[in-house]
Amino acid sequence: MKPEDLKYSINSVEPDDYMQTRLFAEISSKKKSKNKSRKGFKIAISAVLCCAILIVGLGFGIPKSNDKVTGDVDLYGSDGNMFIINVYAAENKESISITDHTVTVPDWKISKEFDENGELDSIDGYGENCFFSISGENIKYVKYTCETAYLGASDEDYKKYLIENNEYYDFIVPYSEEYRLSDLSVFQELLYSRIENGYYDEIVDKSKLKPYEKYSAAEIIYDENGNEIGVGFVSMENYDKCNADFVYSDGTPVREYTFENYYDKTENIGPVIWYPDFSFIFEKPKTSFSKIPHDTITVEVTFNDGTVKKQQYDFSFNKNGELVIDRIAD
Amino acid sequence: MKGGIRTNNENLKSKFEAKYKLYADMLYKIAFLYFGNSYDAEDALQEVFIKLLYNSPSFKDLNHEKAWLIRVTQNKCRDMLKASRCKDTSADEIAIADFVKASSDMQLDIIKQVVALPEKYKTVIILYYYYDYSVSEISQTLKISNSAVKMRLKRGREILKIELEDYENEA
Which of residues 285-324 of A touch B (CB under 8 A)? Predict the structure, then answer.
């Protein structure tokens, strides 16, 4: 079998002509029912976490449905400023409470798969399913850093703030019906050339126009009724201010991100994804998971009154591959 | 715009159509090769598009969006397979021929064998051989290390080579 044979074969797998119609019918009807079921959903979790189920309170507890009582509520001093770190794992529907500073997260479990020759095939059970965020009052900033792993952050509050202050989009041009025919990204180059050719001279100051590659994906802007009213061009610089995922475009690992609490949220501030580094296991495949170098997550919270509280957490795996989070003593 | 006013459903439809044109074929191929049938592949795609339309992060560019969709599709397929306990379903038991337009027995057999591959090999095989992704692009897309990608490619290739030995000799 040649690679081309594989290509031709996969090419013969294609959706039928009516799948688009069926899918849209299902999607539009499902959305209605989803909206209904969300009305009573009390816990504010971000869009990316809507499927997150397991919540672990570290430091002091978040009331849960089971009977366990969680730890000390006064871990962070008596000045009234305190925060909780919440860990979310995405797959299992069980929830647990924490009674100690060391937490094992059984639903966040990794495993090794070996082939018959004893070579490591893969490490399963990780990916975009370990999130953590901060809850607390009077929080101004939350800064996360890690040492060996990678972080993923999508700062929706910062984006919203920049948009509200007219700082997010470099410029906005009117929406055109032709963009309905395909994805806007497909039209972005055409739109850019129109701008270059003076089509939007009344709107766009061409002296401030950046090279095309300096713009991220253009975004459709809607009015309050959900109608498209414009297309916003976002500079890579602004995009990168609000988004950092795994590695930056130059390959540098994302190991630090600071969220500003623009909207005085008290829950789910700055959800970040933690991507562990498993290169050690690939180098020494037979090594126990418990030997994977630990990662230290530092959470530094700055409160509105200027008080700064810092707490470190040791992230590791036990021999069973379960994530273990240990609050490092002050 | 009809009468200057468009309903939310029209907005949704136009957004869906745009995304469908861009990604449906690729995501369907991936999902189909997980399940070996159109019904489950379509169910998976439905969930993926719901997530894209209602619950996705903002994307840097099309490649970023595509990578996210590939990961979501892969995870959705895995979840569905776990839930339905149909992981052990043999490709031979499924009438794959009913769903594909293979022009030869060899093409059909290749698809069957890709469907029968262990889950973790499928996406890397499809991305590498069908979509011509490099190892590092696959690593970035799936957020797994280069060595994991190489390992999966190697093992996937070996399995296909063994299972498709007859065609190997013909080639």
Answer: none
